Amino acid sequence: MSLNLQTHTEHFTNPLYLESGRILEPYDITYETYGTLNEEKTNVIVVCHALTGSHHAAGIYEGESKAGWWDGLIGPDKAIDTNKYFVICSNVIGSCFGSTGPISTQHPHHEPYRYKFPVISVKDMVKAQRILFDRLDIHRVEAIIGGSMGGMQALQFAIHYPNFANKVIALATTHATQPWAIAFNKVAQEAILKDPEFQQGYYDPEVIKEQGLSGMAVGRMAGHISFLSHESMNKKFGRDYKRTDGLYELFGKFQVESYLEYNGYNFTKWFDPLSYLYITKAINIYDLSRGFDSLSDALDKVSADLHLISFKNDLLFRDFEMKEIADEMTKLGKKNFDYFCVESDYGHDAFLVELEKFDRYITEVLDG
Amino acid sequence: MSLNLQTHTEHFTNPLYLESGRILEPYDITYETYGTLNEEKTNVIVVCHALTGSHHAAGIYEGESKAGWWDGLIGPDKAIDTNKYFVICSNVIGSCFGSTGPISTQHPHHEPYRYKFPVISVKDMVKAQRILFDRLDIHRVEAIIGGSMGGMQALQFAIHYPNFANKVIALATTHATQPWAIAFNKVAQEAILKDPEFQQGYYDPEVIKEQGLSGMAVGRMAGHISFLSHESMNKKFGRDYKRTDGLYELFGKFQVESYLEYNGYNFTKWFDPLSYLYITKAINIYDLSRGFDSLSDALDKVSADLHLISFKNDLLFRDFEMKEIADEMTKLGKKNFDYFCVESDYGHDAFLVELEKFDRYITEVLDG
């Protein structure tokens, strides 16, 4: 059977009440589906994307060569089997791939929001998705799954909509963003803000797309450090030099430098800097226990089967952060969870690249 | 007894032949001494500074409040006891505190070198110091000690001038800079280069001193991440917020953000961006085995007693990097070394701040 990839955008005119007390109105949500919804609507799996991801999680668009970000996991006969399941992945609000974000036109003006866009939280992203699913007449799903910021969304779903999903699978994430991760985001934010081309948000998106924004490139380079690990960097690059005759040139390049440069500058051509500021802000303020007395109180709400997957050498969200969730669940006397630390040297990016290390586990959870 | 702090600058007109094949001529070396040289000149200890350090390792200058960077370790009755020892610390060439660097005037022109300054290596820094000591009629010293890039210098001394020191103590360093550390340097270099105020090195140093250079500030923020550890960040900052009412403001601040901002911007007022480019380059190309068939061949030259001190949660120079040196020494059948991993949660900066965890060890080595 085919992937049956479909991309849609839904428009909402009802106000979205945000955690900050502010309102987003109107707003769009762009989403993608794979597989076919069964008649009873009991085969839905929600996939949540990370910071720079989008609704395009699987398949290849016509005329393009690059597949969606979790294509290895989603499709016919893959771990998230589209022969069985109807998969929905939506672009989070605040992002820049179709859902309303800071670069969207602010109604009724004809100008982008820019800094007038309200600060959104991961909880707000989840709330907007819940409203989208309502619109699609989907009121309960088989599973919600996501890694990194996608894992944060999955956990927020588990706590704030405890009856919405039968299973929640959160990978490479945390219960509250730690200072280490906030620090990396700070470097990126500061690099963007101080880039004169950014013009306090009044940049020309077309110019940015062509030339890139060096501030965001620098920030993204720092991000890439946090996505890898000492081990994966040693394996990938070691001390290899691009041109051995350039060792004593001031700007000669180690392989790791070329990698950061290429990925940093390439990134600025496809991601919006205002969205980067807003989404990193959402990640920074993410804390499952906000609004509760404690993390324990928050986790007490969970009624779905909760599956926690961490990665051994993840330097962005450490394995012990996921373990802390598991420990709290144990203390609460909950039985409906498990915690699995994947042996991996890759670092945070493992949830995107080392699929073979956890795809069977995902299959077991979904079939279980 | 007093510290007997003295600051001097020596001028050299003989060419300094650099590892790159280029020549530095003439050049100055600024250095500081503490304690008193005994008649036999047998009580000299050489202290080597790190990336942004200087010759000012101990004591407080008149009218200032901040002490030298290793003041807790150097002084009367301290681990490096100036009642007994005559301590010399010199500013490395390429730096910006008196020794010749890229912002120095290029003879016979009246303009700074800027990019015309040759790329220097840690080996070159050490060679220049050896020439300084010759000038001071010091031909053998009791010990050489340094951390981070200072540790690199200490190790280079041990290999290239095997008969110069009785004891070599290297802390929080490596035998060759790994891609992880190079990556952090890359972020800083790119941030400096892309800052329009940097003007390809044609900035006005006075303007920089007053206003700071936001590119270098961003780069330094990334550096600070590598100097700390997850554990120390959690202890220092946790998720504390500077103003709790600002959580939903786009640019509200977590404590960790304020810390990075303060330290990043403050740094740009006292360190030169061209020196930062040149010294990080020297660190990137540092590799003890260069010019030898292997690390083992290089270490085979060591004749001083070698003392290797690593720090448990150092994320910049991992403990196993120091351990690799120790392992090679063992394989070579050498007996004149020891390796000691300090239990510390602090991260790389531990060699500057957790002195109480290793100062007794230093005393034992020096008195032994």
Automatic annotation (TrEMBL), chains A, B:
Pfam families named among the record's database cross-references: Abhydrolase_1
Family: Belongs to the AB hydrolase superfamily. MetX family.
Superkingdom, taxonomy of origin: Bacteria
Pathway: Amino-acid biosynthesis; L-methionine biosynthesis via de novo pathway; O-acetyl-L-homoserine from L-homoserine: step 1/1
Binding site for substrate: 220, 349
GO BP terms: homoserine metabolic process; methionine biosynthetic process
Oligomer status and interactors: Homodimer.
Cross-referenced InterPro entries: AB_hydrolase_1, AB_hydrolase_fold, HAT_MetX-like
Main location per the UniProt record: cytoplasm
Compartments it resides in: Cytoplasm
Protein name: Homoserine O-acetyltransferase
Gene: metXA
PANTHER family, A to Z: HOMOSERINE O-ACETYLTRANSFERASE
Any one GO CC term of the record: cytoplasm
GO molecular function, one term: homoserine O-acetyltransferase activity
Domain AB hydrolase-1 intervals: 43-354
The EC number(s) this enzyme carries: 2.3.1.31
Active-site residues (renumbered): 148 (nucleophile), 314, 348
UniProt entry keywords in alphabetical sequence: Acyltransferase, Amino-acid biosynthesis, Cytoplasm, Methionine biosynthesis, Transferase
Function (record text): Transfers an acetyl group from acetyl-CoA to L-homoserine, forming acetyl-L-homoserine.
Catalytic activity: L-homoserine + acetyl-CoA = O-acetyl-L-homoserine + CoA
